[in-house]
Every structure is written in C-alpha cells, then in structure tokens.
Amino acid sequence: MMLVILPKLPLTAGGLPVRAPMPLDGPATIANGNALLEELAGRVHADMRASGLDTTQAMMRYSVDMRYVGQMNEVPVTLRHGQMGPDAGKTLRENFETLYRQRYGAGTTRAQAPLEIISFLAEAVTPTGKPAFAPLFEGKQPSFVAPPQRSVYMRGLGFIEATVFAYDSLAPDTPIEGPAVIERESTTIWLPPATRATLDIYGNLTIDL
User: How does pLDDT run across 1-44, given as a tens digit for each residue?
Assistant: First the structure.
C-alpha cells in the first residue's frame, strides 16, 4: 500500500482565515470545519494526480488534532465519516476523552472543560503493485583470495585478530565466522567470536548469535 499524506492545513476556509484554535462548540465550527476538509481533499487529490496516482482508487481518511483549552499537547481524533455532522461536537468530545484517558490515565478528563481544534489532516491511501527486489548477489561466487586480518579491541578480551571482508565481495549462502569485520561504504558490521553471518541474494545479512 502507498500512503499519501498532506501536511496539516492552516485554519482557513474559502480562502479566508479562521480563528485558530477553533473552539469545538463554536457557532461556525461545523461549517468552517467541513470547508477545510473539502479543501484538504481537493489538495490531496491534486497531489495524487501530480504524482501519477489514480484518485478513484484512493481511500480517504480524515482527523483533527484536539486539546483542552489552555493545554499544550494535542490528541489526534479520527473523523470517521470524513465530515463534521450536526452532532460532531458531542461525538468528537466523547472520542477525545476516550483517547485522552487511554493516554493519560483514568480521572484525567474534564467533562465541562472547553475543547478546541488545532488542525485538520487528510490522508489518501491507494493500492500499489508489490515492488520487485533486485537479486544483487545472485550467481556471485566466493573469492578464493584469503581476506586480511586486523587487530580489534574487545572489552574484557583485549586485542583479538578478526577477519576483514568487503561487503561487495561477499557471495550468497557462504557463512562468515566471527570474529570478523564486514566493511561497507556507509557502515561497518562487527561479528563477535562464536557468531556467524550469511548473505542472501538480495544483500541481507542474517547473523546467528
């Protein structure tokens, strides 16, 4: 699956600024909220089309970030129907308080405390084909040249001799016994004594401890 996420939209509706944060029980909250959600959906679909994705196959998901007035931390609450209906205030409060109790514990909610919406979020999920992984090491044969040795310091053991391998020179299904060092351009892999590493054709190393 591919997830396309649009950044949270500033609180504007129809090109006009909306008071932020938006009070959950405000007289224009439902109308402004639905205008924002519609604008978000349009921007998500535009981004998808620009990326060559089929919008007709997309599954939309919407949510809002909410908090108690005067607090700093928001809780994300899902909008299950993609819009704010007449009972949105009641439903969002119930869902917010359920999530708030799960996050902060029993007794932490305040039934009469005012709530506010900080931001709106729209996501589009669309199916994609399973990617094909390149068998980078398929058919590669092990080298018969003896690899070099290096002194490596291990805490509690002092200096020990370890075999040094270049990652690109490895062959699949050929065990590498520790102590050994496997060097890559971006990292170094250490195999302690009594361990074994095996490379597969896709370049993954399985280390048996």
Answer: 344 444 444 444 444 445 568 999 999 999 989 998 988 888 88
**Can you list the positions of beta strands (E) in the chain?**
2-5, 12-13, 16-17, 22-23, 59-68, 75-79, 115-126, 149-154, 158-166, 176-177, 180-183, 188-191, 196-199, 205-208
> Residues for the chain: how many in total?
209
CA separation for the pair 163, 169 (Å, rounded): 13
Specify which residues 207 forms β-bridges with. Answer: 197
pLDDT digits (tens, 9 = 90+) for 46-99: 988 998 888 888 899 999 999 999 998 899 999 988 889 999 999 999 999 999
What pTM, to 2 d.p., does this model score?
A: 0.58
Residue whose pair of structure tokens reads 């809002």 in the numeric block: 64
Domain boundaries, the chain: 2-126, 149-208
**52 — alpha (psi -120 to 50), left (phi > 0) or beta?**
left
Count of helices and strands (H, E) across the chain: 2, 14
